[in-house]
Amino acid sequence: VELDSELSCLATAVYFESKGEPLDGQLAVAQVILNRVDDGRFGRDVCAVVKAPKQFSFVRGGAMPAPTNMAQWETAKAIALIATSGSWPEVVPDATHFHATRVSPGWKLRRVATVGSHVFYR
Q1: What are the angstrom distances between the C-alpha of 40 and each of 7, 24, 73, 105?
Q2: Whole-model pTM above 0.85?
Q3: Among 10, 41, 98, 117, which residue is least crowded by beta carbons within 10 Å?
Q4: Please, which residues bridge with residue 121 across strands?
Q5: Residue-level pLDDT at 83
Q6: What is the maximal distance between C-alpha atoms in the chain?
Q7: 80-94 exposure pattern, b = at least 16 Cβ within 10 A, e = fewer
Q8: What residues have CB less than 8 Å from 44, skipping those under 6 apart?
Q9: pLDDT tens-digit profile of 4-63?
Q10: Residue 98, class by beta-carbon neighbours within 10 Å (0-12 exposed, 13-18 middle, 19+ buried)?
Q11: Phi (first) and psi of residue 112, to 5 degrees
């Protein structure tokens, strides 16, 4: 599947933030990014949200690395397409933040769910 730049940014974020997670966890990560676009405070489009400073640890200086595991990359691309199609219900409705369960950032947001190894907030 060939992706435009927005879908590529979304798939890359899904890949680096949640590859190896259950499919609903990967979809939840994609939906958080789309919720951030809809919110408007995080960036005007998917790439702006993903590349925003200090938001996603895999982004370095506004650049995103290339995926190396092709099977997981294909899954991330499919998740990005599903998330943008709106054909699947939101896993964690209206969530705008997430982090891995192994960290504790102390955010003053409302914790709404844990899916796989990620905690989601709104």
Answers
A1: 18, 24, 28, 23
A2: yes
A3: 41
A4: 97, 111
A5: 97
A6: 39
A7: bbbbbeeeeeebbee
A8: 37
A9: 999 999 999 999 999 999 999 999 999 999 999 999 999 999 999 999 999 999 999 999
A10: buried
A11: -120, -20
58 alpha carbon, distance to own chain's centre: 12
Reading the block at residue 106, the tokens are 């102390």
Residue 103: the pLDDT is: 95
Tokens of 62: 């506004």
Q: Are 17 and 56 in contact (CB under 8 A)?
A: yes
81: phi then psi, degrees, rounded to nearest 5: -65, -40
Residue length of the chain: 122
What's the rounded Cα separation, in Å, for the pair 37 and 16?
19
Rounded distance between C-alpha atoms, residue 10 and residue 51, angstroms: 11
Q: Where are the alpha helices (DSSP H) in the chain?
A: 5-18, 23-39, 46-51, 70-85
**What are 84-98's pLDDT values in tens digits?**
998 999 999 999 999
